[in-house]
């Protein structure tokens, strides 16, 4: 399974859905400075990412 994490963004969420990914989990962080941040874990059945897929 391939899993991707990114911040909650309507445009990115639509692109991930169109690419066949499903939401695995939604994580919300409440930082001490009062900022709230939401991240979404997306996943789909696909070959795992290999070292050759990483550009660095």
In short:
With 56 residues, this protein is of the alpha+beta class.
Low-confidence stretches: none
Could you tell me the number of beta strands? 3
Number of helices: 1
- As laid out across the biggest beta sheet, the strand order is 1-3-2
What share of the residues lie within helices? 10-25%
Overall geometric form: globular
For the termini, the CA-CA separation is: 22 Å
Q: SSE string, helix = H, strand = E?
A: EHEE
Estimated share of beta-strand residues: 35-45%
The average pLDDT is 84
Keywords:
alpha+beta, 3 strands, 56 residues, three-stranded antiparallel β-sheet, 43% strand, 16% helix
Write the layout of secondary structure elements.
Elements: E1 2-7, H1 10-18, E2 22-30, E3 36-44
Antiparallel strand pairs: 1-3, 2-3
Describe this structure in words.
It is built from one helix and three strands. The model has no long low-confidence stretch (mean pLDDT 84). The relative contact order is 0.34. By secondary structure, the protein is α+β, with helices and mostly antiparallel strands.
